Backbone:
């Protein structure tokens, strides 16, 4: 039915017409599927994933992995720039930092996840294969590459991933107006969806799921995104040190 037809039918009832138009303006159909706040969390993560896909495509095209190692500094640099551009959209990260006790719990959780991560590597716990990131040149570690890798994994990736998986997706599954959702009150579906997807983002899928559970519980318990960010940073930072120390490049 056209708007003109509606106006003729209700011409004798102006109050009904005003109610009709008020309802139309508040219709869910006019609400964007993804808000600006959602895109501010999606774009940095999407950029990170794009470079992973790009690297795989270039390797398939014949480029040696050693030639592609400098993609990572570009990748992490662009993600950092996007996080800075959208920083005003991250209200939860502009709030007060977590308490000392919460920080201690987050650090302990990060260490526990690390221990489990490097041990949950049985064949059935792995999907696909990952050659990892090898910063060596002619058998010698390129310390600039190694330092950038550790810094990116410990300082940039935790913020980017926790904004996407916990701040956005976990709450968005619960309600499209995700910024109004209290993380302590998300349902089982909203808890499980990002945990499982986060797990299978990594080739060590079971370790990824365990990490996702730990980080999500921290967010729900402390109701502060800095808690899972800190835990994630501890896991990634210590993992980087362990990888360089042991030469277990496949874990990178």
Residues:
């Amino acid at each position: 039915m056209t708007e003109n037809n509606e106006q003729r039918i209700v011409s004798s009832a102006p109050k009904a017409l005003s109610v009709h138009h008020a309802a139309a303006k508040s219709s869910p159909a006019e609400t964007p599927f993804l808000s600006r706040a959602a895109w501010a969390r999606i774009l940095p993560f999407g950029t990170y994933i794009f470079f992973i896909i790009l690297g795989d495509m270039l390797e398939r095209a014949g480029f040696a992995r050693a030639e592609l190692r400098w993609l990572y500094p570009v990748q992490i640099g662009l993600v950092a720039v996007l996080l800075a551009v959208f920083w005003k959209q991250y209200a939860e990260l502009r709030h007060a930092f977590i308490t000392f006790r919460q920080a201690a719990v987050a650090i302990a959780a990060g260490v526990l996840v690390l221990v489990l991560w490097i041990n949950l590597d049985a064949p059935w716990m792995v999907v696909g294969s990952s050659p990892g990131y090898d910063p060596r040149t002619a058998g010698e570690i390129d310390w600039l590459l190694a330092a950038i890798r550790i810094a990116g994994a410990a300082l940039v990736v935790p913020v980017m991933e926790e904004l996407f998986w916990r701040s956005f997706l976990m709450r968005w599954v619960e309600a499209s107006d995700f910024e109004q959702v209290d993380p302590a009150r998300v349902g089982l579906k909203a808890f499980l969806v990002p945990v499982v997807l986060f797990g299978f983002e990594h080739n060590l899928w079971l370790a990824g799921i365990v990490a996702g559970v730990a980080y999500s519980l921290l967010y729900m318990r402390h109701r502060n995104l800095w808690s899972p960010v800190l835990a994630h940073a501890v896991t990634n930072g210590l993992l980087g040190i362990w990888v360089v120390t042991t030469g277990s490049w496949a874990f990178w």
Observations:
- Residues 58 and 68 are 8 Å apart (CA to CA).
- The mean pLDDT is 89.
- The chain has nine helices and two strands.
